[in-house]
Here is the input.
Amino acid sequence: MLSIEEKSHFLRDVSAFESLSKEQIKVLAGICEDLTFEAGSQIFKQGDVGASLYIVVDGLVGIEREVTDETDTVSLTMVKPHQYFGEMSLFYDAPRSITTTAIKDTMTLRIRREAFVDFARQYPDLLIELNQVLSQRLVEAYDKISEVTRNRKPRELRKLYDKLDF
Here is the structure.
């Protein structure tokens, strides 16, 4: 289990929290829970109810998305120390859109939505940072959709865009 000081020291090197003061980082560290996951274990599954952000302290987490059914998945990315995942669930009350699995033994810090909302009300600058990250990830998703659908017929492409919920 990490102390508040250890969590604070670690959180200073997470890009989304760089603009926070030392005092704000200490408050944030106080709402973080440390969790460990053995290699191969799922952290959460696509479709689960989500309400937490996870920050990788040590280890590696794989991100996948089911595309048709439980037998067809696409590997999206790997999350390394000082990176995070699950941030959409802090803002969007919907089932998880991805499955996350510990690739090797992994330690994370978890921030629950309720605690995050209280923190964000005190320190709204954090919302600007996270909004930038979410926007960047949305642009990357659009780029991937464009690349995958480049060779499809316009009608098929329109159907895919219609499925996007803005």
